[in-house]
Amino acid sequence: MINSYLNYIQENYKSNEITLGKFNKSYYNSLKDKNKIYFDEKAGKYFVIKYNNENCGIVGVIIRKPRYFFQIILEPKFRGKNFVEISANLIMDKFKLNKLYAAIINTNTASLKAHKKSGFKRNLKKEKELKNQKKLIDKQILLNKIRR
Fold it and tell me: What is the pLDDT of residues 58-106, one digit of tens each?
């Protein structure tokens, strides 16, 4: 079952067919879940995720040097199909990053699961530090993805 699913993903959602397009504010505003991410046009860089020229969602990175925070919203039909991992890798490539952070509300279990499946791991030490500095709220869990 898992192998057939992975084959489906590899055959139907190839990473080289998923691209980052120019940010489109009206498309962003049309997304039902847009309020689930922290959107900051001044501190962030955002892109439309495209698969075969179809809009799949929005991905972005909030730049708080030395940390870069990954943000993603996917259309429902593209969830659970490895777009989080591919999009995170595209962002890491675009900004030449070895580490990428994600701050996710602890009740957003689907997002937590997708990020963990994509190689993000919880960083309790940095999470406590940022909460003490009031840069994260208590409900947020801090994950990071490290490229080796």
Answer: 999 999 888 899 999 999 999 988 999 999 999 999 999 999 999 999 9
Token reading at 31: 């997304």
Domain residues for 138? 2-146
Provide the token pair at 72. Answer: 């993603």
User: Number of structural domains, the chain?
Assistant: 1
Strand order in the sheet with 67-74: 18-22, 44-51, 54-64, 67-74, 99-105, 140-146, 121-122
2, two tokens: 């898992």
76 preceded by a cis bond (ω within 30 of 0)? no
Enumerate residues 6+ apart whose C-beta is below 8 A from 129. Answer: none
Inform me whether the pLDDT recorded for 8 exceeds 70. no
CATH number of the domain within which 71 lies = 3.40.630.30
pTM of the model: 0.85
User: Helices in the chain by DSSP H: which ranges?
Assistant: 2-12, 25-30, 83-94, 109-117, 124-132
The string of DSSP letters for 66-102 reads TEEEEEEEE-GGGTTSSHHHHHHHHHHHHTT-SEEEE
